[in-house]
Specification:
about 270 residues
Length: about 270
C-alpha cells in the first residue's frame, strides 16, 4: 500500500518540485520584489458602474486614506481592512476620506448588500504602491530561504483561489481559461520576462488540483489506497472503474467547454 501511495503521489510531488525550482530560478536570476507602500488604499478601477462606489462618487485613481475616521497606514493589510469594513457594514453608511488629484474629499457611501448579506460597493482595491525594486539574494542560503517564502505564499494564494472558485463557482467560472487561454497567458508572460514565474504558477495549480480527493485524480486514487489499507481488502474494481470513468468523462467535458470558450473569446465582436 505504501509503495502504491508513493507511485500515485509522484505526479503531485513532481509538480511541486518543479514549481519550487522555477521560483528558485526567478529568485536567483531576477531577484525578489521589494515593494514600498504609501499610506492609503488605491481604487484602480470601478468594477461595477452601477454599484454604490460609482453612485456615491468614487472614481478610478482615488486613494482611500481614511475609513470611518480610521487612518489607513502604509501596510499590505490596509486593503483587507477596507474590504472587511465594507463587508461588515451590511448596507450601513461608510464614511470615506479620499485623496484625488492631491485634494482631500469626504464621501459617505452606502454599500449595496449581496445575497449573503455582505456590503459591496463595486470597486477594485489595491495597495497604494510607491515603488517596486528587485533585490537579488547575496548567498545560496538566502536564495533558498527566499524561494521557500515565495513558494509558501504562492501555495497559500493558489489554495485560496481554489476555495473561492468552489465556494462561488457561478461568479468565478467565467474567469477560467482553457488550453488556448493558458498558451496566450504564457506568451504574454514570456514577453514580460516572467516565464519562470508563470511556469511555477501553472505547475503548482496542476499539482494542487491533481491532489484533490476526487475520482480519476491522483488525490482520489490515494484515498482509495488508504481505504483499501484500512479495510484490509481491495474495493470492487468494477465500481471503481465506473466511478473513475464517469468523472474522467466529466473532466473531459469541462476541458472541451473551456476550449470552446477560449476560441469564442478569440473571435472579434464584429463577427459574432
Amino acid at each position: 500500500a505504501l509503495q502504491r501511495a508513493l507511485v500515485i503521489s509522484g505526479g503531485v510531488i513532481f509538480n511541486l518540485i518543479l514549481a519550487w525550482a522555477a521560483i528558485f530560478g526567478t529568485v536567483t536570476t531576477s531577484g525578489v520584489s521589494n515593494v514600498s507602500l504609501n499610506p492609503g488604499v488605491l481604487v484602480p478601477a470601478i468594477a461595477d458602474p452601477s454599484g454604490a462606489g460609482a453612485k456615491y462618487g468614487l472614481r478610478g485613481g482615488d486613494i482611500i486614506v481614511k475609513i470611518d475616521g480610521v487612518e489607513l497606514a502604509a501596510k499590505e493589510l490596509a486593503t483587507a481592512d477596507v474590504s472587511a469594513a465594507i463587508k461588515e457594514s451590511k448596507g450601513k453608511p461608510v464614511h470615506l476620506e479620499i485623496e484625488r488629484e492631491k485634494q482631500r474629499l469626504a464621501l459617505d457611501v452606502v454599500p449595496n448588500v449581496d445575497r449573503r448579506g455582505d456590503g459591496v460597493i463595486g470597486v477594485r482595491l489595491a495597495p497604494n504602491v510607491a515603488s517596486v525594486s528587485l533585490v537579488k539574494p547575496a548567498s545560496l542560503p538566502e536564495a533558498i530561504g527566499q524561494a521557500n517564502k515565495q513558494f509558501g505564499n504562492l501555495v497559500g494564494q493558489t489554495a485560496g483561489g481554489f476555495g473561492q472558485l468552489l465556494s462561488n463557482f457561478g461568479h468565478t467560472a467565467g474567469n477560467l481559461a482553457g488550453p488556448v487561454g493558458v498558451m496566450q497567458m504564457g506568451a504574454e508572460a514570456g514577453r514580460q520576462g516572467a516565464l519562470l514565474t508563470f511556469t511555477a504558477l501553472i505547475s503548482l495549480n496542476l499539482g494542487l488540483m491533481n491532489a484533490l480527493p476526487l475520482p480519476a485524480l491522483d488525490g482520489g486514487q490515494l484515498v482509495l489506497v488508504l481505504v483499501e489499507a484500512a479495510r484490509g481488502k481491495p474495493l470492487n474494481q468494477e465500481v471503481t472503474r465506473a466511478v473513475n470513468g464517469a468523472f474522467l468523462t466529466l473532466l473531459l467535458g469541462v476541458s472541451l467547454t473551456l476550449l470552446l470558450g477560449d476560441i469564442e473569446r478569440l473571435i472579434p465582436a464584429s463577427f459574432k
